[in-house]
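Quick one from the shared queue. A colleague (R.T.) flagged Xylulokinase as missing a structural entry in our internal table.

Convert sequence to structure tokens.
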Amino acid sequence: MYILSVDLGTQSIRAAVVSKDGEIKGIRQIPHDVRSPRAGWAEQRPDSWWENARDAIRGVLEETGVSPKSIAGVVSCGQMHGPVGIDGDGRVTTEWTQLWSDKRCEDQCVRVRENHDVGELAAITGNQPTAGWVAMKVGWIKEHRPDIYKKSRWFLVPKDFINFRLTNTAATDPSEASGTYLWDAKRDVYSGEMAEILGLDLEKFAPVISAHEISGTVTDSAAEETGLISGTPVICGGGDFLVSLLGLGLTGEGDAVDITGTSTLFVVKRREPIAHPFVQNLRHVAGGWAPFFMLDSGGIAMKWCRDLLSSAGNGEVDYDEMIDMARGVPPGSGGLIFYPYLFGERRRENTGAMGAFFGITHEHLASHFARAVMEGTALSIGMNLDIFKRVGIEVGRVVCAGGGTKNDLLLEIKANVFGIPLEVSDEPESTIIGSALLGGYGVGLIDDIGDAAKRIYKKCKKRKIRPNRSAAARYREIQGRFNRVYDKMVGFYENY
């Protein structure tokens, strides 16, 4: 028997057939675009998601030759936080839905900060008010499109919308519910107090079940569209990066992951959320919490540096050449420090921050700048790790994933900055594997989801990057300088 996993990403939707042992029989991927009609807006059509999901499911079944009768369950995961309005008849009310990256609701966040003690709200939700949370986006709909708000029976996040189309049942899981800004982190239920503060109706948000629970079964109409068997169980699933943690075997206290692609996401598995204004908290799909922070330009800073070097020379500089240049410079880049905030900073007190080099002298060459960019991204993460340490969080095992794992020098720098051995995973499909684990557990193919996750990850190819004692000591000194200059720059950009 197999699990069919649907992964609704920002750039594409994928359907995969996966065995209970984590073996992927096949994947069908269909791309889709993001529309940005105004600055700060990012949106997609939910109806297109379903059309592509339907075609991907049917396509992967045909390509693998797996009988629909052999599908024990269907599970969805994907991009988080985008509220899809659904009316009482199951029709989409938000033809174009705000994505996780859409910033149009920033005014809603500002008003919350101005009119309420955000520390008291964080004591309820475990989070600060940001434009990423579902409730802020729904608040924008209520203010600017009250007609849509009124006729919407449900506001469902992307993967829950796919499940709704499969089952005609509304449900969500704790990883997504904790990202609404309506979740009581201590009681693990929706907060009526937060709903009242934000002026929203809680009954418009889906009931919460565990990520591994069955939310419904495939309807006759969905079966006809997808090729699945009517009555096939549909498991709730979870948000993409939280499901990815499971696929990487990160289920133990203090387990962490550094995912570097365009951005960098650093997540730690914890029993409890971390109460700190610079840390956000979401529920882990396997229980407990996943405190995290993000660097929006974690990976794209490398591309920016490469493009800069190319434009200044006589030809294109590739990544290997840039890395070789940087490798020839000792740790510390000759005193040159890079602040990698090319797309602003996530920290509430410094959202207007910009990228900057500090400490430039006449002795610095292109190679110093190349290394400083890599060091700056690592030091920015290290600054946030210092917060974890100050509040008593011990980060143990760190797994690195994403495109950034192709840069060995960056990994060496991170190991030395963090002072922790890094485990580099070569598994590119941790999200699909993680969601399949949830599905397998939900339908009884797997007895212990934590053990299964560790067993599957153990089979993956991986390598260790260990810190160098002298380099790590040097970077501890540099980290202190990086942090001091950062603190001096807070507020500077407001009047820039």
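The two ends are 60 Å apart (CA to CA).
The domain at 2-243 is CATH 3.30.420.40 (Nucleotidyltransferase; domain 5).
Added to the table.
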